[in-house]
């Protein structure tokens, strides 16, 4: 146990006696006691390393990939080559324009350079360099013997050099004559050789501080991200606790990653990466680079790890990678990954649709509708997909999808909102129907996991083809129809295995317009530009901001279409695909062609019904059992409640506040609802 010396004087009460042989007290009144250090050691003993297993040693998790990741994808290869070609083209054009000026300068410097080269060759052939000074020294000291010996050495060295020079000169002359006589070199070749010789001579003849070519840029050009730059930039953010560049640690070397550099940084202990991510503009200032060239994001290992990716060029100048789905023969399937976006390194970002649901949120103008469109366009090339789209902005952002939709609703009026509610009711009923179909398919051995399979989805008449339901500006629906949010939540939970893909787009993430339960059950959350932590976490989930997963880094207009998406292998910064109107039209034309030119015909949407009123309608005097009410509802309104089960009905009613309890009817006590409870909720709703 470690002991810490504590010096006491007479007023203090010593707690431990002096340890013999330790340092003496500082004066007569004082004496030393030794107090054990607080707490037990918490660091692993050094020997812990010895307990490493062979699998730890051979673990591949920390291995650097054999081939750099950017070389593996055609898109990142193309982006890198494009960035290099762009630079080369610029340099070539810059110098070509100044060609005449360079010609004059070279003509001026070349004679002097030719003379310098010839003189240097002669001095070399005479082997005088170094030797002359030593001979002079010997002469100054009357040392004839040394002088002669040095001269002999020089002469010996000089002879083969003269021979070499002579041979090279003769070979060059003779070679030139032979080439000229044989006509092997066209005139342009001689001009090129002469220009090359003049350039070499001019280079040798120019003053050391006068370059022949002009400087391409006066500002320091960004060519490489260095540790010093990163350290200085992070320290300049003035984050509490980060004052010394040495506190910034690099777990792996800074390296090229796609068309840019990646610096992975461990911030000081206890500091969260989000603090630096939030200060993207300050980082851009510190690095003296445009904001859209600097991409901080959370590192993969812990909350204090920062990935700082800096592009060779700003994203706005990099151009966009070509969308693979623009190819004339592109076809997708919701069961396999389809490209719908790209990341800052220009790598394609893909997702499957099956068993997924999507929530896209962001402030007005952040690019939500286009984000939704990029997903919809990707799945439109799966000919089995049926769309149901309701957009409550009322401006027809999805109008071109109408030919692919069995239901297309646009507007913010009561009728449009009613139809939105009806889509949800229909989808819930469809989920019930699909549940039964899958059960039957499972019994027949066609759905081993109790899920829709690609084969079942394709099978005509299976009733299990994928359905994509998109609600744009869904907060309008949730705000107007209190039951819609509950219905959407149930649908998202239920739809996963049933081939129904729900996509919600919203600009107002708060408790009423985006109930947290919905956020929780959505698989893929895509947060575009948002104003603050609250909105961010409403979309991405509590704690996302703190972990550095945040849409607050994106600027409202400049970064339209940029956002961060969770739900894949790891959170990624992505830019939605943004095809031109012609490209979008061509994808949709192909999608229509893939469907044989036919618009999907969906089941007519049922009138949106009021479940509470319907429960009263099928209730007895005091209430009803769920097991009786469910078939009664199906019988009276088959389109609205197709084969609803007692459990599903009880779930739906409880979501509306109707308690499920033992109800005695005709002497039998079974789970059901009391009529009085339903009436009370209806009365409260009428007079809130
Ligand atoms: N991926 C993208 N690349 C480039 N620009 C984009 C991209 N996505 C959207 N934009 C730009 O952002 C603008 C707004 O996009 P969009 O209409 O999708 O935003 P929104 O968030 O739905 O807006 P609102 O809330 O007002 O409906 C578009 O007109 C377009 O100019």
TrEMBL record:
UniProt source species: Catellatospora citrea
Positions of the UniProt region annotated as Disordered: 1-27, 35-54
Residue span, FtsK domain: 346-537
Protein name listed in UniProt: Cell division protein FtsK
InterPro entries registered for this protein in UniProt: FtsK_dom (IPR002543), P-loop_NTPase (IPR027417)
Domain of life, per lineage: Bacteria
Residues binding ATP, per UniProt: 362-369
Keywords: ATP-binding, Cell cycle, Cell division, Nucleotide-binding
Disulfide bond listed as a keyword: no
One annotated GO molecular function: DNA binding
The keyword rRNA processing appears for this protein: no
Top-level taxonomy: Bacteria, Bacillati, Actinomycetota, Actinomycetes, Micromonosporales
GO BP of this protein: cell division
């Amino acid at each position: 146990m470690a002991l810490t010396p504590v010096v006491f004087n007479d007023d203090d009460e010593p707690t431990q006696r002096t340890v013999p042989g330790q340092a003496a007290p500082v004066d007569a009144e004082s004496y030393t006691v030794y107090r054990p250090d607080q707490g037990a050691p918490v660091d692993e003993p050094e020997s812990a390393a010895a307990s490493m297993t062979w699998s730890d040693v051979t673990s591949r998790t920390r291995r650097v990939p054999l081939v750099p990741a950017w070389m593996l994808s055609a898109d990142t290869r193309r982006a890198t080559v494009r960035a290099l070609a762009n630079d080369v083209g610029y340099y070539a054009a810059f110098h070509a324009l100044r060609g005449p000026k360079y010609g004059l300068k070279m003509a001026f410097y070349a004679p002097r350079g030719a003379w310098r080269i010839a003189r240097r060759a002669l001095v070399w052939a005479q082997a005088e360099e170094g030797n002359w000074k030593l001979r002079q020294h010997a002469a100054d000291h009357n040392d004839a013997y040394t002088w002669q010996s040095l001269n002999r050495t020089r002469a010996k060295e000089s002879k083969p050099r003269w021979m070499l020079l002579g041979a090279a000169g003769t070979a060059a002359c003779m070679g030139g004559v032979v080439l000229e006589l044989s006509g092997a070199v066209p005139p342009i070749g001689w001009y090129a050789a002469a220009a090359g010789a003049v350039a070499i001579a001019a280079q040798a003849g120019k003053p050391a501080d006068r370059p022949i070519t002009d400087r391409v840029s006066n500002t320091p050009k960004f060519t490489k991200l260095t540790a010093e730059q990163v350290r200085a930039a992070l320290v300049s953010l003035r984050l509490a606790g980060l004052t010394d560049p040495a506190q910034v640690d690099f777990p792996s070397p800074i390296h090229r990653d796609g068309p840019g550099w990646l610096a992975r940084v461990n911030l000081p202990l206890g500091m969260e990466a989000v603090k630096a991510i939030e200060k993207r503009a300050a980082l851009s200032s510190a690095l003296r680079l445009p904001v859209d060239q600097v991409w901080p994001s959370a590192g993969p290992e812990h909350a204090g790890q920062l990935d700082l990716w800096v592009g060779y060029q700003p994203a706005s100048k990099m151009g966009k990678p070509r969308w693979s789905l623009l190819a004339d023969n592109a076809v997708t399937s919701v069961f396999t990954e389809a490209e719908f976006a790209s990341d800052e390194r220009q790598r394609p970002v893909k997702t499957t649709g099956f068993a997924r649901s999507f929530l896209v949120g962001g402030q007005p103008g952040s690019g939500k509708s286009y984000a939704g469109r990029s997903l919809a366009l990707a799945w439109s090339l799966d000919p089995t997909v049926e769309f149901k789209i309701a957009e409550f902005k009322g401006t027809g952002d999805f109008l071109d999808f109408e030919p692919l939709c069995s239901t297309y609703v646009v507007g913010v009026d009561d009728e449009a909102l009613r139809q939105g509610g009806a889509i949800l009711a229909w989808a819930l009923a469809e989920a019930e129907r699909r549940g039964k179909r899958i059960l039957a398919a499972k019994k027949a051995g066609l759905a081993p996991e109790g899920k829709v399979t690609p084969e079942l989805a394709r099978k005509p008449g299976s009733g299990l083809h994928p359905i994509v339901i998109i609600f744009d500006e869904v907060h309008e629906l949730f705000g107007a129809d209190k039951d819609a949010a509950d219905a959407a939540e149930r649908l998202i939970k239920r739809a996963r295995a049933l081939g129904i893909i729900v996509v919600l787009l919203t600009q107002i993430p708060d408790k009423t317009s985006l109930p947290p339960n919905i956020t929780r059950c959505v698989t893929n959350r895509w947060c575009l530009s948002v104003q603050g932590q609250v909105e961010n976490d409403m979309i991405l989930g509590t704690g996302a901001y703190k972990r550095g997963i945040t849409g607050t880094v994106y600027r409202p207009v400049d970064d339209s279409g940029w956002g961060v998406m969770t739900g894949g292998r790891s959170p990624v910064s992505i830019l939605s695909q943004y095809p031109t109107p012609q490209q979008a039209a061509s994808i949709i034309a192909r999608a229509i062609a893939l469907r044989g030119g036919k618009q999907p015909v969906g089941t007519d949407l049922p009138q949106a019904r009021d479940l509470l009123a319907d429960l009263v309608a099928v209730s007895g005097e005091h209430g009803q059992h769920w097991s009786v009410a469910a078939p009664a509802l199906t019988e009276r309104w088959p389109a609205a409640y197709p084969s609803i089960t007692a459990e599903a009905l009880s779930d739906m009613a409880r979501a509306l506040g109707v308690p499920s309890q033992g109800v005695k009817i005709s002497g039998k006590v079974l789970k059901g609802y009391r009529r009085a409870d339903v009436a009370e909720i209806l009365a409260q709703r009428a007079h809130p």
